[in-house]
Amino acid sequence: MEKILIIDDDKDLCFVLKRFLSKHGFEVLEATTGKIALEILESVEPDLILCDFRLEDMSGSSILKKIKEKNPSVPVIIITGYSNIKTAVEVMKLGAMDYVTKPLLPDEILLTIRKALANKTSDEKVGVGSNESANAEESESVKEQEKLALINAKRNTESGNYIFGDSPDFKNILNQIDLVGPTNYSIIIYGESGSGKEVIAQEIHKRSKRNHKPFIAIDCGTLSRELAGSELFGHEKGSFTGAIGQKIGSFELANGGTIFLDEIANLPYDVQVQLLRVTQERKMRRVGGTKDIDLDVRIIVASNRRLWDAARSGQFREDLYHRFNEFQINVPPLRERVNDIMVFANHFLVQTNKELGKNVKRFSPEVEDVFKKYVWHGNLRELKNVVKRATLLSDSSVIDIKSIPFELVNYKKLQFDNTAEAAAVAAPRETTVTATQPPVREAGLKSVSIDAEYEWILETLKKVDFNKSKAAKLLKIDRKTLYNKIKQYKDLNNQEL
Ligand SMILES: Nc1ncnc2c1ncn2[C@@H]1O[C@H](COP(=O)(O)OP(=O)(O)OP(=O)(O)O)[C@@H](O)[C@H]1O
């Protein structure tokens, strides 16, 4: 009997899954924390592991790494709370065999498990007596391609998650997507963070002849200076310290399809030179490699600042800017497309209902009013997070003002009228640096303390009827620090849930 280990802190889900899988002839073990799972793995060798990406005591990536260290051959299927291509690529890169998104569908989960187990058996058969090194390179690359095909196939079936707004601006964008999609033009998409640039790039890819090939999204803002080249172009074994195996880069993975380079202005200058070669000669070399590889990749880049300005200030190569600038799409911030707000809010409500198995029907008129007046600095990402939370909190069929964050409802009252404070945030002095650095959710304790501080600040503000000077005095901080702390909390909450 094949053994499956379920790792999920949702006890109900573990119970339901256990019953379902046992009925289908599997022996099922369960662990409700990462720690328990690792203890079980000391003495048991399961045939397959089903693991939630967000455990209370461990992040998905760290548990995946630990499982792979202990038992590299066991197939791991990741359960993710939402369908996000970035998470999917991330978990596949870390060695997961596949992923399923919540809500879990019985047929899908069974099929995914059976496929993973069948793959494992055929891998084991190939491994017996085969000349491992001879075909290692080829099979690595085939595996990468197979994983990508899987991710893309899933993404296409999830495409029902995307909708288009109702504002004239959005209709204009849709026209542009239709127009430029089928061509091979390189495109620059401008827009604030969370405004939907990646989704637009995906839609362009879907409308192109390349749509059966991979769409790969890379956030250049998160690539380190040292590893950016290797991430994009891959590397050969031993080409630098730490290059223990061969790596296929994002460009090679995207061959035949489309690559989306977000925050392109953050790409290190030497990598920009390599990129220029790719756009001019349609060829690339892996880091440390000697062989030219032919490339046929459509490039879509995005930035929240004008690339022409970055080129003029010497941060971005001008020749590269002209290469990319065959077509431009400008995505206005959500606050400038008021007609889109409720279209997207309702869409995110339907999506969240499905994820949570709830049936919340609509927003109260008061909530609609707040939504339409709010400034949405985090754009669609912020709206999505607010709707997700509100749907979760709501215990009736209508989302009312109680389920909407206090600072959204009281946005106007919380405004700092003195622009000096805003300027201080844009150019923080040394003493305020820690307060303005973007906080990281994974920092655990840090985010807890930010949340607690914020609660306290709000309480104090309420006490003094939103008089910021009085509140700062009571809190024994200056007004600028008060402003920074509120901003820090908001940045934290504009990250994707
Ligand atoms: N047309 C749409 N339909 C449904 N959801 C959307 C749409 N556009 C954006 N979203 C959702 O809004 C969130 C932000 O979108 P996206 O990641 O594309 O923004 P972005 O501009 O690329 O952000 P960033 O620059 O910060 O990476 C995502 O969760 C995405 O799924």
UniProtKB/TrEMBL annotation:
Gene3D superfamilies reported for this sequence: 1.10.8.60, 3.40.50.2300, Homeodomain-like, P-loop containing nucleotide triphosphate hydrolases
Transcription regulation found in the keyword field: yes
Domain Response regulatory, residue spans: 3-117
Span of domain Sigma-54 factor interaction: 163-392
Keyword Transcription regulation among record annotations: yes
Entry-annotated residues carrying 4-aspartylphosphate: 52
CDD domains in the cross-refs: AAA (cd00009)
InterPro entries listed in its UniProt record: AAA+_ATPase (IPR003593), AAA_lid_NorR (IPR058031), CheY-like_superfamily (IPR011006), Homeodomain-like_sf (IPR009057), HTH_Fis (IPR002197), P-loop_NTPase (IPR027417), Sig_transdc_resp-reg_receiver (IPR001789), Sigma_54_int (IPR002078)
UniProt KW keywords: ATP-binding, Nucleotide-binding, Phosphoprotein, Transcription, Transcription regulation
Domain of life assignment: Bacteria
Alphabetical list of Pfam families matching this protein: AAA_lid_14 (PF25601), HTH_8 (PF02954), Response_reg (PF00072), Sigma54_activat (PF00158)
Record PANTHER family: PROPIONATE CATABOLISM OPERON REGULATORY PROTEIN, TRANSCRIPTIONAL REGULATORY PROTEIN
Name of the protein described by the UniProt record: Sigma-54 dependent transcriptional regulator
Organism annotation: Chryseosolibacter indicus
Classification lineage: Bacteria, Pseudomonadati, Bacteroidota, Cytophagia, Cytophagales
